[in-house]
Design brief:
By secondary structure, the chain is mainly alpha-helical. The protein has one domain. About 60% of the residues lie in helices and about 10% in strands. The strands form 3 sheets. The protein has a two-stranded antiparallel sheet. A two-stranded antiparallel ribbon has the order 3-4. A two-stranded antiparallel sheet has the order 5-6. The longest helix is centred in the N-terminal third of the chain and has 26 residues. The chain is globular.
């Protein structure tokens, strides 16, 4: 795929718009409109509150995603800080964004006295919308690429600007695997949304399903820079996935046992 969407001159200076940034912006826009409309309709929350939430989440996700990316190769980035500016607009770790975003939304919900678990369910669906666009951006940029494969659905990256390695070789389309995973999760969440047993169920399902799926897609990843706890056996993301599955599974079980009737709001 091609990382660059369009290049042009503006006031005599070259300007390049990358697919990655464009698709992230698209995901954030779609996510905001879904969250604002749903929060107003179902929870009576005004759009300006969602705007504020979106701003804080974007900042937290950017910082967390970038820091976790740097921690994958600490000697390279922290040993030579100038390397942090290379490909600054790309190179993010989803779990880093998630881990930074969750405490940010908790703080924001408490500050504005928002209904916590109903909002977390809203965040889960919104997160899927943003995430699937982000993974499409990864596909165009060539990052988060897969191992070489002889499977008929292998994808060959040939653009010299692509981050995929090696070029001109069929690779597992791990970005597309994740897109399929996230879209499947989104469908499940929307199905459960009408019949959920307790507030927070969608959020717990989102975390557990993604963690399980991510553990599987990691097997096909070829970008060794993401780091391993046990070389070629257990990656950083797989370890985080195992921890999340365990912790969230416990919460899901406890919440399901203490479930309270959900009062449906009239449209």
């Amino acid at each position: 795929m091609h990382p660059e969407f369009i290049s042009f001159e503006l006031f005599g200076k070259p300007v390049t718009i990358h697919f990655y940034g464009l698709l992230i912006a698209l995901g954030a826009t779609l996510g905001y409109f879904y969250a604002a409309k749903t929060a107003k309709r179902e929870l009576g929350i005004e759009s300006d509150v969602i705007q504020g939430l979106a701003r804080w989440v974007i900042i937290a996700a950017f910082v967390g995603g970038k820091l976790f990316y740097y921690f994958e190769s600490p000697a390279y980035y922290f040993g030579e800080p100038a390397n942090m500016l290379k490909n600054f607009r790309t190179g993010f770790v989803f779990y880093g964004s998630l881990i930074f975003a969750i405490p940010t939304v908790i703080w924001y919900f408490r500050k504005h006295k928002l209904p916590f678990w109903p909002m977390m369910d809203l965040v889960a669906v919104t997160g899927c919308i943003v995430h699937v666009c982000g993974r499409m951006g990864c596909f165009f940029a060539g990052c988060c690429y897969g191992k070489p494969t002889d499977m008929p659905w292998g994808i060959t990256f040939s653009d010299p600007l692509s981050q995929a390695k090696p070029l001109n070789t069929p690779l597992h389309p791990t970005q597309l695997y994740e897109i399929f995973l996230i879209l499947s999760i989104l469908v499940v969440l929307l199905m459960f949304k009408r019949h959920k047993r307790f507030e927070g169920q969608l959020f717990f399902l989102y975390i557990m399903m993604y963690a399980v799926g991510r553990s599987v897609t990691e097997i096909f990843r070829g970008d060794i820079r993401r780091g391993f706890i046990i070389e070629n056996v257990l990656s950083h993301s797989q370890l985080i996935s195992l921890i999340l599955i365990s912790l969230v599974g416990i919460f899901y079980y406890r919440f399901s046992k203490k479930q309270k009737p959900i009062v449906k709001q009239k449209p």
